[in-house]
Amino acid sequence: MKLSLKNFLLKIVSPICAIILWEILAIYINNPVILPRVEDVINVLIHPFNGILGTGSLVDNTIVSIKRVLSGFILASIVAVPLGILMGYFTLVNNLLDTIIEMLRPIPPLAWVPLSLAWFGLGEMSMIFIIFIGAFFPILINTISGVKSVPKPLIEAALTLGAKEKDILIKVVIPASSPSILTGLRVGAGIAWMCVVAAEMLPSSNSGLGYLIMYAYSLSRMDVVIACMIIIGLIGLTLDRGLRYIEDKYFVWRKMLK
After folding, report:
1. Please, what is the Cα angle at 149 between 256 and 94, to 5 degrees?
2. Which among 131, 104, 230, 234 is positioned nearest to 189, based on CA atoms?
3. Which of 118, 76, 135 is nearest to 204 (CA)?
4. Which residues pair with 57 in a beta bridge?
């Protein structure tokens, strides 16, 4: 219990120090357009159901962003995980796709905005596509890496016992690479949340936390901007902690092998 309390206290030290430093700087600068006081941001956060700047409530915009992020992230996972397994396991598939994947991977999601508008028009799909692009590559690369790092003795043992190619892939390779896949999902989820701001900057967007950030900035409401940033951070943290919990609970055996 003491160790648990100590760890908890250590985890909250840096956020508390950051808040204190923020408040000191805000008092020193004394300009809410540059840096609002902590209490101003808290005032926005404790009234999440009130309308903000004529764009709906903070809760409404948060729900819109969550839906967009989940849509893009789930779509990216559905495509990237199976493709990564195939590329990691079958040399032919990897040779066919590796070059084009490595060419596209360094392109930032924001660079896809013009093509997104041309392909999908002014609609939700344009924003979901940007989020999809951001989440797709880290999930894919981690999945490929996880499949390629499966210990060969496991595969050889399965072959010795008479397992077929399909059985090895489903019962050996995929379970053994699951921790790496989960790591890719964690990274992809974080990038998906970063991409939502870029996605909601598209002309078709009139809601969401990203849109609210840009609109509040145009009105010099930095308290709203920081409140939205805090919400994005908290949601991202919650999602990451959920995936990390699954990793720690169900894949401890993989850590013991390392």
Report:
1. 160
2. 131
3. 118
4. 51
Q: What is the pLDDT of residue 2?
A: 46
Contact (CB, 8 A) for 181 and 146: yes
C-alpha span between 5 and 40 (Å, rounded): 31
> What amino acid occupies position 70?
L
What are the phi and psi torsion angles at 57 (to 5°)?
Answer: -80, 165
Task: Provide the 10 A C-beta neighbour count for residue 23.
Answer: 14
Radius of gyration of the chain (CA): 22
Q: How many CB atoms lie within 10 A of CB 151?
A: 11
Contact 55, 61 (CB under 8 A): yes
Q: What tokens does 76 get?
A: 């990216």
Phi and psi at 30, nearest 5°, equal 55, 45
Residue 165, token pair as written in the block: 């190619």
On the CB side of 169, how many CA atoms lie within 13 Å of its CA? 11
| The overall pTM is greater than 0.90 | no
User: What is the model's pLDDT at position 138?
Assistant: 94
Cα-based angle 54, 57, 62 (whole degrees, multiple of 5): 125
